[in-house]
Amino acid sequence: MKKKLAMALALTLVLAATGCAGGSSKPAEEPAEEAVEEAAEETEEAEAEAPAEEEAAAEVAVMSHEEYMAAAVDDEVCIETYVQATQSWWEDKITVYAASEDGAYFIYNMACSEEDAAKLTPGTGIRVTGYKAEWSGEIEIAEGATFEFIDGEYVAEATDVTDLLGKDELIDHQNELVSFTDMTIEPIQDADGNEAAYLYNWDGSGEEGSDLYFNVSKDGQTYQFTVESYLTGPGTEVYEAVKGLNVGDTVDLTGFLYWYEGANPHITSVTVK
What is the dihedral of CA 89, 92, 96, 101, to 10 degrees? Predict the structure, then answer.
């Protein structure tokens, strides 16, 4: 239909041009039919460019961290941020802990080739486009997000949030690199009621290579922390350090403030005092 309309418009223009030439007997420089087709092609090209321009205009603008947090769950989002750490790459997907100076992000199972995964080192800049999601309190960019590399570099320093444990304000630091000082290792019970300084999985059902769970206390309150094996698995300094803990040890801890029904930090460093 558009092509017929373009042809008709072009023919009208050609006829109008012929009329303007008066009664001149000078032959046209090109046949009228060719002029019509050329004009129609130009019209079609202009129509083809319009959707592309509209699509570019509809692209999601890069958001600040405040704008990202204000977006509704399932909204399309676009952020520019910097890699702080990554979980294990698997089947063209990778999970990223990221941060900018104005806030932090958790990007779950982002589409990524193995070659690009090797380039996602701490400090690397990326622009990520995807959809905002929430799972058990954790705000994240949902599986399937795409990314491209950008210029710049940023590595965050840990923020000490020890005094915010048990307070509502702690969630304001969700996904940031944080630290906890002078924490005491408390016993943790498995599903059978046995106590230990740590467990493989939250109920003790795991084995070497599983996530590690352990309890720590501060000012009489006890909290459960995790060593995420996809982030820092067997053989890493923190994994082996937690396996060497004893109930009653005093420790300083650093990790990413992941959230699962409350604070569930993914610990990346343990220092026994």
Answer: 130
